[in-house]
Input
Amino acid sequence: MFTTGFKFYFGLAAALVLSAVIYGYATGGEHVGPITWGWKGGVGEHIGYTMLMASGVVASAISFVIVAFRDADPSAQAHYLGVDEIVPTATVTGSYWPVVGAFGAGVGLLGLVLTPVLFVGGIVICSLAAIEWMMDAWADRATGDAEANAALRDRVMAPFEIPVAGTLAVGVIVLAGSRIFLNASKNGAVFWAGLIAVVIFGIGVLYAAKPKMNRNIIAGLVLTCGLAVIAGGVVAGVDGEREFHPHEPHGEDHGDDHAEDDHSE
Output
């Protein structure tokens, strides 16, 4: 009746919706606002509430799609793949997404102490890690052929992963870089901006000059530089912005002096 995937996603949706309601009341929600999505009262802190509730709605939709297509039903999968029977699946491969999820949980906990922006960022990271991890687990048991499983996963997830990953990478780097520039001195901001630009350009030149280089090396360089910028942005954001002194035109000072001279006469 109810497939394994449906039970998991529907349970996840219920947990996210309940978390959104609790978060709404904990951040100033009024009356039944968090329960009615703001129709009868306030929902508290809007960003965190919206992210949790939206994630719950998405998980709920996925659960109904899964049960509609009879996920984990061998006969349904055989009919979809056009074969008589499904080959026994191989052992599930390892995944690094739990590590990413743990990082997102840490960011979310820091956000509860420091700023709501980090809290929302932690929720986004955990949500993306959960989706990716689930898709890996689904693809690993789709067939008994590891290459076919990888191709099936890429066909489903690549149209979403590439634009989302690019948007998130650019957004995070820009946000972290802005925190560094606002924290550094006037000349220091120019130095850091030039250094980041040189590193990005250098990695691009290296990849273009040696296209056959091991992709793990390029990925390691990009990941290391990205984490360095993010760490610098977090530290700079916690330390705060530097003091900005407004620049007064020289003409205003001279005008005041002339006015004082005329008044004395």
In short: The chain has three domains: 1-86, 91-144, 161-243. Confidence is low (pLDDT under 50) at residues 254-265. The two ends are 98 Å apart (CA to CA).
